[in-house]
Amino acid sequence: MKRFFLYLFVAMAALSSCQKEEKSVFDQTPDERINAALAKYQADVLSSPNGWKALYRTGTGQAFNFYFTFNNQNRVVMYSDFDTATTHPRESSYRIKALQQPCLIFDTYSYLHMLADPNPYVNGGDAGAGLVADFEFAIDTVKGDTIKLKGRQNGTELDLVKATQHEADLWTKGDWTRALGLQHITDFLTYFKRTTIGGVDVDVEFYHYSRQIVFFTYNSSGIRTPVTASFVYRPENPNGAVFTNPVKIGTATISSLTDMTWANGKVNTKVNGTTNIAIGEAIAPVVVNKNGATSWWLYKIQQGYWVNLGFHQNGVDDAFGVQSIPGFYYMAYLPAYDTATKTTYWDWMAYAAVKDNILTIPNSSSFVPTFITDGRAIFNTYKPDSANAPLYVTLTTAAFTDPQGYYFLQVGPTTIDMVGVRDAKTWLRWYWVE
């Protein structure tokens, strides 16, 4: 037994001696290794003499082009095709920092932040979420001419690719703005934007932030069918909007709209780089749906009501200021309300607001439609505005009772647009609520 303990003591002593002689497999401390990695990545972002180009796809699926130049003072100058304003340079700060792993952080408000902004008026996204974009990125890999980044919050991917001098010039000399000519469609004041493609007259809707173009075709009854194309902007070869997937209209299969110019109140462009078309204002549907107005009104059998957020007029949303009502909720219209007694609330519209968590009706009106055989509805009021009615009420009443009336166009299963016949510059969007 004594011999056993002697052997055990010798073994433990030998093991202790070996442990004292162990050395770290690294030549640097963890902090030194982290700092070295950060310095390397800092050198990487500074390594492109002509800056970096990037195609960034948000969490909601839209694709935006960017151009970045970084300096050694932690400043970055960027351009974007987010809108025409963002094709001008904007400077902000950046950092290379260790946050569990090396990260590239854009830490002051920039064009990237605009995509993530929770205010829907900034980017057209959902309130509180924006376009589900990132501005803090983990550095994934650096290989060849590409730095791959991954968003820390939403997992979006941003690949920085070294730009050529020519690609840099496209941004810094303003050539990129030519690719954004389709945005001029939003300069039209009329609801209808008209062109002819493949022998078919179509209306065009342009959604810049969602990167979509919708072509509306009509059948002989005036029923519209949307044909939707998602697109990415390209500065050249071709210059303009390149569709993610081609769409077919009439005899034409469309893969791009390029070489855009804005002249004489029209957007002039080429289909697939060859066929010239012009998009301009129109004041009536291609074919009027003669049942559109009555279909809207007869939706009452669904036991619900229509709501809207105020009139759009001459390019201005909520042109009459109904959303300035304290606690504004919506404007609600109940078709043929109280039909048994035909009271003054026949076809009643309420200006609804919320106060102390209670729904209130600070003002109301009555607009009764007369349906014309050509598809229009003309409204009269059976509840005149009081002498001291707010301006938003009198303006709304004046618009509703325009003697030329309104067209009604189906937008979605429970969404209908009411468009002024006079000049198509006044319209209202209805949403059905059950």
Automatic annotation (TrEMBL):
Matches recorded under PROSITE patterns: PROKAR_LIPOPROTEIN (PS51257)
Family matches, as InterPro entries: DUF4302
Superkingdom of this protein's organism: Bacteria
UniProt-recorded name of the protein: DUF4302 domain-containing protein
Organism of derivation: Pinibacter aurantiacus
